[in-house]
From TrEMBL:
GO terms for biological process: D-gluconate metabolic process; Entner-Doudoroff pathway through 6-phosphogluconate. It catalyses: 6-phospho-D-gluconate = 2-dehydro-3-deoxy-6-phospho-D-gluconate + H2O. Its EC number is 4.2.1.12. Residues 68-381 form the Dihydroxy-acid/6-phosphogluconate dehydratase N-terminal domain. This is Phosphogluconate dehydratase. It holds the Pfam family ILVD_EDD_N. One of its GO terms (cellular component) is cytosol. Pathway: Carbohydrate metabolism; Entner-Doudoroff pathway. InterPro entries: 6-phosphgluc_deHydtase, Dihydro-acid_dehy_C, DiOHA_6PGluconate_deHydtase_CS, ILV_EDD_C, ILV_EDD_N, IlvD/EDD_N.
């Protein structure tokens, strides 16, 4: 068994030490909650009768605790392609539960919004805080105290973090995430990117763009690029919260159904009353959080997780920040090139060995913790295998080597020696830089800046030819407290065009970029945010800014000390943004997770 890398060991020890008090308080709370809610039959008869009134043939079993009752929290809707398959899951899962003497009930539903639908639209300003709403909705569903374990049905951007945050407040219950898998591959990613840029230049019509996008996003299942949704699935594997290898098995296939069935059976096996109790609170510990970071860095995953990982960790009493992530990045090699970091998508990645191969490489080289409590194996070693069939039986097999070294490589021959993210900092604050998608010659950009308050202003300036030069585009007042920290992926095509024209171009913002952000250098999630006097509020057009992903630098040569902050634009109304004012007013920083709920809850 490989010795743990000393940096991984040191960072883990630091996280454990600084989390000592908050983690102990969390685990104590979970023990008290477990003792209080151990038996649903302590509930008054009227309460209990309400809980199983519509359970049909399962009534007697739920009433008598003849077997475990599995609560299902579903983020189903049929607007999000990844979540459309979930409509059929609960009836199937009830049958799977009865096979092992258990029952299952839909405990509740959560909202699930698609950043792909809201990208660049007013609704995007609700996106980050939808994670808080999802966590709250999960808590409401589980508050009925009728359940012995929890199946969590969610995949996409804020949905998995929100489900996990909510479920962790009921961490005395075992929980398994049940994915639905990616849609089949559509048109080549380079062709999709080409049409987007042609449209940005006015060289393709809207009809041509829509035809291209429809060939890319074309059926049920997760979008196939390696954005936030698929990075979520990677993290659930690294944390041991899926059945092993479940992440990227396609929808509506025999293997997908077998894995869902296996998850339900496992949820019946690992309850408090079993001899193999695996509560979520024990599964999500400091080592599991470090594993999530290792997977994110090794695969070049979504920058959104620089916000989600601290938030999820806080819900379990664990404290992690960008300095911890940066130090782990210094020893975690980039093992994957999945679009937008490479040409192939997650289906190609999965076929080449995928997450199982990556986990095996990380474990064998001491870059991830093997000894964590998982939901589907004795430790994380089980997740270094891939699922399949032996006749009709679900089995797991070893993955001896990469099936495509242009897609996924061993630690000894990585795409780059360090992870796919870099902390950059200086007199403009602290920010995240996704280095894995950027060519080496563009990791350092120094140029005069052009400052904008809205992403629409950038598009207008591009169309007017005002950005045809070396330029660092600053888009400020996009943080959690200003307007909910929307993704600014709409800027990727015009900035990509400028870069292709030979200009030195970069983006600096206190907003987010999509998990699909690609080749343009970008310092994102700048903190402190501009609202309230953060450094970006002091920047003016023409200031020289230096962004360097090699040295970790984000700074300006301008003297900011004598300047007054530029005030933020007034919050916009419409699309229910006014209802989210309380979230904006109480949100904490991006580095702490950008959450109002966690901040207001004292976590």
């Amino acid at each position: 068994m490989s010795k743990l890398n000393p940096v991984v060991e040191r960072v883990t020890a630091r996280i454990i030490e600084k989390s000592k008090d908050s983690r102990a308080a969390y685990l104590e709370l979970m023990q008290r909650e477990s003792d209080t809610h151990r038996d649903r039959n302590v509930m008054p008869c009227s309460n209990l009768a309400h809980g199983f009134a519509a359970a049909g043939e399962d009534k007697d079993s739920i009433a008598s605790r003849r077997g475990p009752n599995i609560g299902i929290i579903s983020a189903y809707n049929d607007t999000i392609s990844a979540h459309q398959p979930y409509g059929a899951y609960p009836p199937q899962m009830k049958i799977y539960a009865r096979e092992v003497g258990a029952t299952a009930q839909v405990a509740g539903a959560t909202p699930a919004m698609c950043d792909g639908v809201t990208q660049g639209q007013d609704g995007m300003e609700l996106s980050l805080f939808s994670r808080d709403v999802i966590a709250l909705a999960t808590a409401v569903g589980l508050s009925h105290a009728m359940y012995d374990s929890v199946a969590l049905l969610g995949i996409c951007d804020k949905i998995v973090p929100g489900l996990l945050i909510g479920a962790l407040r009921f961490g005395y219950l075992p929980g398994i995430f049940v994915p639905s898998g990616p849609m089949p591959s559509g048109i080549a990613n380079k062709e999709k990117q080409k049409v987007r840029q042609l449209y940005a230049e006015g060289k393709a019509t809207r009809a041509q763009l829509l035809e291209s996008e429809s060939k890319s996003y074309h059926s049920a299942g997760t979008c196939t690029f390696y954005g936030t949704a698929n990075s979520n699935q990677m993290m659930m594997e690294l944390m041991g919260l899926h059945m092993p290898g479940a992440a990227f098995v396609p929808p509506d296939t025999p293997l997908r159904k077998a894995l869902t069935r296996g998850a339900v059976h496992q949820l019946a096996r690992i309850t408090r009353d079993s001899e193999d109790y695996r509560p979520l609170a024990q599964c999500v510990d400091e080592k599991a959080i470090v594993n999530a970071v290792a997977g994110l860095l090794a695969t070049g995953g979504s920058t959104n997780h620089a916000i989600h990982i601290p938030a999820m960790a806080r819900a379990a009493g664990i404290k992690i920040d960008w300095s911890d992530i940066a130090e782990l990045s210094s020893v975690t090699p980039l093992l994957c090139r999945v679009y937008p970091n490479g040409s192939g998508d997650v289906n190609h990645f999965h076929a080449a060995g995928g997450i199982g191969f990556v986990i095996g490489e990380l474990l064998d080289n001491g870059l991830a913790h093997r000894d964590i409590m998982t939901v589907g194996g004795q430790d994380l070693s089980s997740y270094a295998q891939e699922p399949g069939f032996d006749g009709d039986n679900l089995i797991w097999r070893d993955i001896p080597e990469s099936g495509d070294t242009e897609m996924v490589r061993p630690v000894g021959k990585p795409f780059q020696e360090t992870g796919g993210m870099r902390l950059v900092e200086g007199n403009l604050g602290r920010a995240c830089f996704k280095t894995s998608a950027v060519d080496a010659e563009r990791l350092t950009i120094e140029a005069p800046c052009r400052v904008f308050e809205h992403q629409e202003e950038v598009s207008k300036a591009f169309s007017a030819g005002e950005l045809d030069k070396d330029v660092i585009v600053v888009v400020r007042h996009q943080g959690p407290r200003a307007n909910g920290m929307p993704e600014l992926h709409k800027l990727t095509p015009p900035l990509g065009v400028l870069q292709d024209r030979g200009y030195k171009v970069a983006l600096v913002t206190d907003g987010r970029m999509s998990g699909a952000s690609g080749k343009v250098p970008a310092a994102i999630h700048c903190t402190p945010e501009a609202l309230g006097g953060g450094p970006l509020s002091l920047v003016r057009d023409g200031d020289i800014i230096r962004l360097c992903g090699k040295t970790g630098t984000l700074e300006t040569t301008a003297d900011l000390s004598a300047r007054e902050p530029v005030p933020a634009p007034a919050p916009q109304q419409g699309m229910a943004r006014e209802l989210f004012g309380m979230f904006r007013a109480n949100a904490d920083s991006a580095e702490l997770g950008g959450s109002a709920m966690l901040a207001m809850g004292g976590l």
